[in-house]
Design brief:
Number of domains: 2
Helix content: 55-70%
Structural class: mainly alpha
Number of strands: 6
Order of helices and strands: EEHHHHHEEHHEEH
Strand order of the largest sheet: 1-2
Radius of gyration: 19 Å
Strand content: 5-15%
Number of helices: 8
Largest sheet: 2 strands, antiparallel
Length: about 250
């Protein structure tokens, strides 16, 4: 599509980078509003943002090395270069673990903080996937005759036949789930918003993974992203019943 939105001399503005920046700014702004409303010191948010930014990048890069080591003719050092790829799930898991260690230090605001932050992952994912679509990064589905199928001849990874625009499916589904959570969250107990968000994150990728050209890992249909999605949904179910049991005691 449009990997480079515009350029002036040596300066280039890349569509993917711009959408990631937009996702960060939007989620940060909403997080600040949420923390202020909950009475949580904004300084804590700044620390969390730094932790999430660093840990998510490292996790996404390491998972990229793991996932592509068998299919790409790259050595480990080449895979670790900034210009090489990232894996979203790797960044998500490492960021959640790192942020949880920090947030766990606030027993008073712990559930409030994760209820504010987790839905924003859905929003950030929705915006970021638009960047993947604009860049034409190869995250497409199989060939399709659907009216909305399209080719990506100018993409970073060109494809000349019409395929499923899978990043748009990711974006539409995750943004819809984000809106549903915003409408319903006031009716849920503390902690439930984060758990529902976690489940819907897994469900989003599990569904759209069927429309993505990805290496199969298990049983002739499961990809690595399917496995991680199932782990997310299972974790959400376990956390839900754990929270419910604690609230009933």
């Amino acid at each position: 599509m449009l990997p480079v939105l515009f350029e002036h001399g040596p300066i280039k503005v890349y569509s993917f980078g711009l959408m990631v920046l937009l996702a960060f700014i939007l989620c940060y702004w909403l997080a600040v509003r949420g923390f202020q409303k909950a009475g949580i010191d904004r300084t804590n948010l700044h620390v969390i943002i730094a932790i999430i930014a660093l840990s998510s990048f490292l996790g996404a890069k390491l998972f990229y090395v793991f996932e592509t080591r068998r299919t790409l003719d790259l050595n480990v050092l080449q895979s670790l270069e900034l210009k090489s790829g990232l894996v979203w799930y790797g960044g998500f898991f490492t960021a959640v673990i790192a942020a949880a260690f920090y947030i766990n230090r606030w027993p008073k605001y712990r559930l409030l903080a994760i209820d504010i932050l987790m839905p924003l992952v859905l929003l950030g994912y929705a915006v970021g996937r638009i960047g993947c679509f604009l860049a034409g990064d190869g995250d497409y589905g199989p060939p399709s005759n659907m009216p909305w199928a399209m080719a990506f001849p100018n993409g970073v990874v060109p494809v000349y036949t019409k395929v499923h625009p899978t990043p748009l499916y990711d974006s539409a589904l995750s943004f819809s789930f984000f809106l549903i959570i915003q409408i319903r969250k006031g009716k849920w107990q503390a902690g439930s918003t984060a758990i529902v968000s976690l489940f819907l994150l897994g469900l989003t990728r599990f569904i759209t993974e069927f429309y993505r050209n990805t290496e199969i890992w298990l049983w002739d249909w499961l990809t690595l992203a399917h496995i991680f999605s199932l782990l997310l949904m299972l974790s959400a179910v376990i956390l839900y019943f754990t929270l419910k049991r604690k609230q009933n005691t």
